[in-house]
Write a structure and sequence with these properties.
This protein is α/β, with parallel strands linked by helices. About 40% of the residues lie in helices and about 25% in strands. The chain is globular, with a radius of gyration of 18 Å.
Amino acid sequence: MAIKSLRQSCLLLIALSCTSSANDAIVGAHNVWPPYVIDEDSGFTVDLVRAAFKAENQDFEMLITPFSRAMRMVEKGQVDIIPALWRSDSRDERFVFSKAYYSNRLVLISRTESEINFEHLEDLKGLSVCAIRGFRSEIALAQISQIRLEKLTNLTSCLSLLNKQRVEAVVSDELAFAYLRSQHTEFHHFKVHQSTIAQWPLHIGISKSHPKATEVIELFDKGLLLLQTNGIYKATLKKYQLDE
């Protein structure tokens, strides 16, 4: 644990000192979001982004930090990319996005005994709902009147609130929830509502103010295309059980 903390501290110092130059690693920042981001060295997104850049002879380093902080760091030029990012009108004004490398299905999760009848976001009026702070899903929920919105830094914390009956529902990527449910027995008595809240493609994003924004995105897209043709993309999906 001390070694991991030391490594994170070193990565943070690197990130705060400069963004990537020709011979430096590209630094990405994101919160823990299994199975996409498990830690600095594992997760579907971490593996895929690292492999895509490696295919183009570019190193990649990962920094784990709360998502809202990661977004601020990217926009201040303290790190280079957000490796897992959904697009929105607001973000399109500030970020350059790669080609999509996956697609997330957002769903509503509640306790099995819940009587919530959910088909549309408007059905959440009057309910207490948890979402990850800074995620596009949290921003969308904040627009709904009469919703009692809890914003936490990760999905595990949101699901723990649901388990303690301190919120009535959680909005999450379906497979992120499935992964955590397989790891935590206390989440087994939750259910996924059938209606899809949204289906959003997943990209890497880099601030338009980054001096090499276009170059970094082109590098990733070229590497991604290679992974999709040489079998590594499919193997990475299978590794994290995202191919089912």
